Structure to design on (654 residues):
């Protein structure tokens, strides 16, 4: 026997020992504690309290992982659900890890044809899409689609969900013909499925952008208006989801050079969002910025500093040191992985040049203020505002 | 000692530890424990007669399908624990799914029934999914990651598991119908459906919603239940009655729930 094979045997045995010890107990006495954690996670989720929901979901996962037993499927589900809650808060890297673990668990427990596995693959693909890793997302969507089509038939709303996202993916890759086919199919199924109006509105938004990019402005406008009608019917006229479609419609008007309807529609969206989320919400700040641009304020550049590191812990530690009086620029020069590190993290930019997350964080800051730690493109950032752009001072 | 011998010795030590761990804990892997239950399932739901879910269709006349059920274990065991004459039931309502188990069970039987409940009566957790991607108004750029413009990030097929309660369960099965009662919480009573042959009730085979090979179709006289979570009050709805025979190798179909 070679050293390598002995080592592999040892690892397998060690794993087996650990798995046995973990699984040796069942959920005795923990079932109701688990149910309570799951119930709380659901309640917080419904209230939009994602951080609290995440804590409860993490507790459920911990109870399950420490008990083993026949609920192994629930460990896999818990990993997925925790991943979803982390995703909802913008931590894509952690979401990816959790979805990967859930995927591995379902593959081991249920095999390759399980509809639960299809859902996890769908979720993981979504993370890759938001990370711009389209080449990795596409095969996951395809696998998810195969499983669902086989299990549920082609005309099922969950199959349409994958068609829509594949269409969205191709739209962003500039493959308009492929995008059109998938989006039309998704729309068809959702329109004919009871209770799927909110999803049909999603597909209509995607098709509207496609038409706009193909130069079909009138068609795009009509699709956005259909989406609005569906969302108003489904969510209510003052729901913020309606505002997101209004913003899309405003962008279309702007692309057509129709200033007045663009401003009017943006104002409507902003009013809905402010009413629901308050003035300091990231989406409200972003919409306000868009409205400013539309109303003709000349964009000038603001001055900022950024400190970017790989882990949240490192970022939190540096944030504490800044608060304790250490120099931002010196810390940025020493620790930041951003290209501006050698200038103490200093950079100038107009609002339209900033990534959305940065624009949102900077929008919250007064001159001289330093932000809290926040996720940025898979890393963790702290920013400081040195000066406002001129348009924001108006 | 050579490296190979050292590695072999380590491997042997781990193997011994593994055996010791099993011996000390006194239990094998929980999911590998053999179990077997057989008896009578009584179930009713809020769907029309005959239940559209049986035929691969969505629930009707409502978008939902709430249910009450009980597995009357006439003969059964979880490993060495006997479960004869105990009932493993539940209610699935608008707020979630509550396990309702036979109050006569002792602690070992309760653990056994809870484990079996999870295997045959419902899933503890439904899967959260990402909300389908909705494009924003900006023109996509190949070098910039796509962005979800919907404010809704995730969706949750919200079938919450609400825990277990131990209650007296009465399950009466006659030649003409069935009645299930969960203590003072309520239950249902159903008459079997007879077609042109008044001697034999209508049955459905290959029933995918419940793990009974032959289901006698019934229609509820009342379907009424109330606890701190769920309140249900219907009548004239679908019911199923049939013999089940389930084990660790054949846990059977799950009740109708939203697919993940």
């Amino acid at each position: 026997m070679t050293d390598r094979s002995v080592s592999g045997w040892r690892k397998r045995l060690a794993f087996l020992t650990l798995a046995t010890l973990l699984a040796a107990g069942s959920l005795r006495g923990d079932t109701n504690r688990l149910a309570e954690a799951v119930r709380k996670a659901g309640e917080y989720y419904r209230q939009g309290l994602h951080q609290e929901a995440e804590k409860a979901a993490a507790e459920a996962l911990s109870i399950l992982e420490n008990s083993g037993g026949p609920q192994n499927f629930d460990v896999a589900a818990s990993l997925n659900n925790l991943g979803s809650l982390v995703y909802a808060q913008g931590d894509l890297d952690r979401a990816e890890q959790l979805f990967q673990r859930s995927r591995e668990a379902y593959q081991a427990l249920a095999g390759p044809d399980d509809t639960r596995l299809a859902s996890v693959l769908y979720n993981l693909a979504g993370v890759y899409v938001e990370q711009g890793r389209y080449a990795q997302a596409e095969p996951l969507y395809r696998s998810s689609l195969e499983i669902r089509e086989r299990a549920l038939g082609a005309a099922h709303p969950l199959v349409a969900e994958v068609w829509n996202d594949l269409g969205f993916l191709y739209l962003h890759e500039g493959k308009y013909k492929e995008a059109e086919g998938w989006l039309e199919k998704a729309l068809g199924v959702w329109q004919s499925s009871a209770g799927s109006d909110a999803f049909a509105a999603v597909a209509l938004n995607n098709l509207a952008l496609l038409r706009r990019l193909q130069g079909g402005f009138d068609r795009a406008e009509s699709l956005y208006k259909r989406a609005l009608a569906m969302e108003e019917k489904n969510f209510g006229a003052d729901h913020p989801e309606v505002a997101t479609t209004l913003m899309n419609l405003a962008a279309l008007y702007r692309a057509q050079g129709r200033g007045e309807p663009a401003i009017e529609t943006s104002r409507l969206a902003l009013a809905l969002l402010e009413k629901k989320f308050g003035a300091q919400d990231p989406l409200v700040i972003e919409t306000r910025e868009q409205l400013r641009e539309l109303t003709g304020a000349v964009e000038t550049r603001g001055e900022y500093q950024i400190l970017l590191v790989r882990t949240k812990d490192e970022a939190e530690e540096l944030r504490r040191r800044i608060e304790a009086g250490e120099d931002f620029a010196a810390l940025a020069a020493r620790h930041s992985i951003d290209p501006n590190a050698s200038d103490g993290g200093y950079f100038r930019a107009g609002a339209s040049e900033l990534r959305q997350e940065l624009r949102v964080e900077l929008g919250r800051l007064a001159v001289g203020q330093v932000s809290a730690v926040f996720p940025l493109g898979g890393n963790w950032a702290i920013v400081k505002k040195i000066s406002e752009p001129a348009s924001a001072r108006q | 000692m050579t490296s190979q011998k050292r590695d072999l010795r380590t491997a042997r030590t781990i193997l011994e530890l593994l055996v010791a761990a099993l011996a000390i804990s006194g239990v094998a892997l929980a999911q590998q424990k053999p179990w077997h239950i057989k008896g009578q399932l009584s179930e009713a739901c809020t769907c029309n007669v005959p239940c559209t879910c049986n035929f691969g269709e969505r629930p009707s006349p409502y978008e939902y399908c709430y249910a009450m059920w009980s597995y009357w274990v006439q003969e059964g065991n979880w490993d060495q624990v006997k479960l004869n004459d105990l009932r493993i039931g539940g209610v699935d309502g608008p707020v979630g799914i509550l396990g309702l188990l036979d109050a006569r069970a002792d602690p070992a039987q309760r653990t056994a029934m809870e484990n079996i409940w999870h295997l045959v009566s419902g899933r503890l957790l439904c899967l959260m999914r990402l909300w389908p991607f909705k494009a924003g108004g900006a023109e996509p750029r190949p070098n910039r990651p796509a962005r979800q413009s919907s404010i809704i990030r995730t969706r949750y097929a919200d079938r919450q598991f609400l825990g277990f309660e131990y209650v007296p369960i009465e399950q009466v099965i006659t030649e003409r119908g069935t009645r299930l009662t969960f203590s003072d919480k309520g239950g249902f009573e159903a008459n079997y459906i007879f077609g042109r042959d008044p001697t034999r009730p209508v049955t459905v085979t290959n029933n995918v919603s419940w793990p009974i090979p032959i289901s006698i179709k019934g229609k509820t006289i009342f379907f009424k239940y109330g606890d701190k979570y769920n309140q249900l009050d219907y009548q004239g709805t679908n019911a199923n009655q049939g013999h089940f025979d389930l084990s660790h190798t054949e846990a059977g179909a799950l009740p109708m729930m939203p697919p993940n």
Summary: The mean pLDDT of chain B is 81. DSSP finds two helices and 15 strands in chain B. Chain B touches chain A through 65 residues (CB under 8 Å). The first helix of chain B runs from residue 3 to 25.
